[in-house]
Each structure stands twice: as structure tokens, then as C-alpha cells.
Specification:
Layout: H1 2-29, H2 31-54, E1 66-69, E2 72-74, H3 76-82, E3 90-94, H4 98-102, H5 105-112, E4 117-120, H6 123-132, E5 134-135, E6 138-142, H7 153-165, H8 167-177, E7 183-186, E8 195-200, H9 205-213, E9 226-231, H10 236-247, H11 249-266, H12 274-283
Parallel strand pairs: 3-4, 3-6, 7-9
Antiparallel strand pairs: 1-2, 5-6, 8-9
């Protein structure tokens, strides 16, 4: 029996090597055909890679494709080959579609620098990226949860100074939201958007949604992300909030609710009470 199992493992390994070799050949010699294959079977390839605790992920890294534009695929090696010399990280984000991912507020600063973003489509992609860790000695960076590494020391100091000056505003917003967020901070990522929702820790919003969809054991709550509401100190919305905290706490509370709801919608979350959100927005006119 043991001899039989060993022979089966050898056969399986040989088949895997042969299939990988044929797929690499297709990728290199007939790119349109491989992309069509990946559109149809890429999901199965990725889930197969994570089977057995992800032992095959590294050996299959050359076969993975990621959208960097709505109609453009890239391998990891192609991505790093295009990276400008000053780019520190391989940027990525998980989203419903490449178009929505690339419109995330956190993507604006990265794209303004001319850097590409790998658009992941499923939670399995995030797991694969985390297991890979690096590509060509470049680390991966989740634009939603990670430090983008794009700020100058002067810019960091400026935001820290503004955060200290706006402590009363940030504390007010955190208290108004109660336990719905872990913290409220000034953002180091936002350019033109007023607000965004990020997370800290190992559980991302995408993972939280995934666990919510899974059948739950009685008495057990699915893991939740530690949510951080980030505000853009240079946006007129923050100036309006700052003024209201000082002069009209009721209006300030409504502004916090609106900003939080907008952050949820941008992040792909649903609102618990859409009608209340509409009423709150209208009451500010």
C-alpha cells in the first residue's frame, strides 16, 4: 500500500510539472490564448495553488495573471520589470472589479506617481500574495491597509502636526461613531477624496465579508476587521467638520455620520439604514 501511494505521488508530481511546462509555453508563445485560458480556468488554478496549505503557490507564481487596467493583464515578473527605479513596493488591492479598484481613494496617490496596481478579484488572491511575500526582491503593499511609502519626511511631519492641532475634532468623530470604528485619523493617503475606510491587523474588510458569508457555528461571531476612518485634512469637508465641532455639535455629529457612510459605500459595504443616511444628508442643506 505504501509503495502504491508513493508511486501515485510520483505520477502526480510528473503530471503537475508537465502541465505547468505546457502552460508556461502557452503564456510565452500565445499570450491571447493563455489569457483566454486564464479567464476561464484561472480561478481553479489559484484555488488549486492554495490547496494543501498553499504548498504549490510559489512554484506556480509565474502562471498567475493580474489586471493592472480594465483590459490589461500582467504577470508578477512583467510588473516588476516595468517598475520605475524609485518605486519601493508592488501595490495591490482587492475589489469587485478593476474599474472600481482603481477608483478607490487610496489608489489616487499611487497612480499619480505613475505606479501600477495589481487588481485582485477574490480573497484567494490576497492569500496568494501574502504567501508569496515578495517578487524579484520587491515586497507587496496593500494600498488599503499598508503604508504606501510615498510621503516625504516633511509631509509626514506636517500631517502629524495637523493631527495634534485637530485632536478635538478626531476625538469627537471617534466618540460619535462609538464602536463602529477603532479610530479616526488624518490620512496619509488621500489626495482629492474627503474620506476613506482602512483597516489594521490581519483581518481586512474583504476577509470580514468572506467570513460573514460562511456558515457560522452557534455562539461564534465571524472575525471582524479593525476599522479606521481616515479623513483628508486638506479637504473642504474636514474644514466644515472642524468648524461645526467648535460651533454646532449637532451639525458636527451629522457630518461625521455622512462621512462615515460615504467611507462605507466607497469600501463596498452596505449601509444599515439607507433612508436615515438620505435624511441626514438632506438635513444639512
Amino acid at each position: 500500500m505504501l509503495q502504491h501511494d508513493r508511486q501515485l505521488r510520483i505520477i502526480a508530481q510528473s503530471l503537475n510539472k508537465k502541465i505547468k511546462s505546457e502552460l508556461l509555453k502557452m503564456l510565452e508563445t500565445d499570450r491571447p490564448k493563455y489569457e483566454a485560458f486564464y479567464e476561464n480556468y484561472g480561478r481553479q488554478l489559484r484555488y488549486g495553488a492554495v490547496a494543501g496549505y498553499g504548498r504549490d503557490i510559489d512554484s506556480l507564481r509565474e502562471l498567475f495573471l493580474y489586471k493592472v487596467e480594465a483590459d490589461k493583464y500582467s504577470t508578477l515578473k512583467e510588473y516588476t520589470a516595468r517598475m520605475p527605479a524609485e518605486q519601493k513596493y508592488i501595490y495591490y488591492a482587492l475589489g469587485e472589479s478593476p474599474a472600481k479598484t482603481l477608483r478607490l481613494p487610496q489608489a489616487e496617490l499611487v497612480r499619480a506617481k505613475g505606479y501600477e496596481i495589481l487588481c485582485l478579484s477574490e480573497e484567494v488572491d490576497e492569500f496568494i500574495i501574502e504567501r508569496l511575500g515578495t517578487q524579484d526582491e520587491k515586497k507587496f503593499c496593500n494600498i488599503v491597509t499598508g503604508d504606501l511609502g510615498l510621503e516625504t519626511e516633511e509631509k509626514k511631519a506636517d500631517i502629524e502636526k495637523k493631527a495634534a492641532e485637530a485632536k478635538a475634532v478626531l476625538d469627537f468623530a471617534k466618540e460619535a461613531l462609538g464602536g463602529r470604528v477603532e479610530d479616526v485619523r488624518l490620512s496619509h493617503k488621500l489626495v482629492s477624496a474627503p474620506v476613506c475606510l482602512t483597516t489594521e491587523g490581519e483581518v481586512t474588510l474583504e476577509m470580514e465579508r468572506y467570513f460573514r458569508r460562511m456558515p457560522q457555528m452557534p455562539g461564534m461571531e465571524p472575525p471582524k476587521a479593525r476599522r479606521i476612518l481616515e479623513l483628508n485634512a486638506d479637504h473642504p469637508a474636514f474644514a466644515a467638520l472642524e468648524n461645526s465641532v467648535a460651533t454646532d455639535s449637532e451639525r458636527a455629529g451629522k457630518l461625521v455620520e455622512v462621512l462615515h457612510s460615504q467611507a462605507l459605500l466607497i469600501a463596498g459595504e452596505s449601509l444599515e439604514d439607507p433612508a436615515r443616511y438620505a435624511e441626514t444628508v438632506c438635513s444639512l442643506f
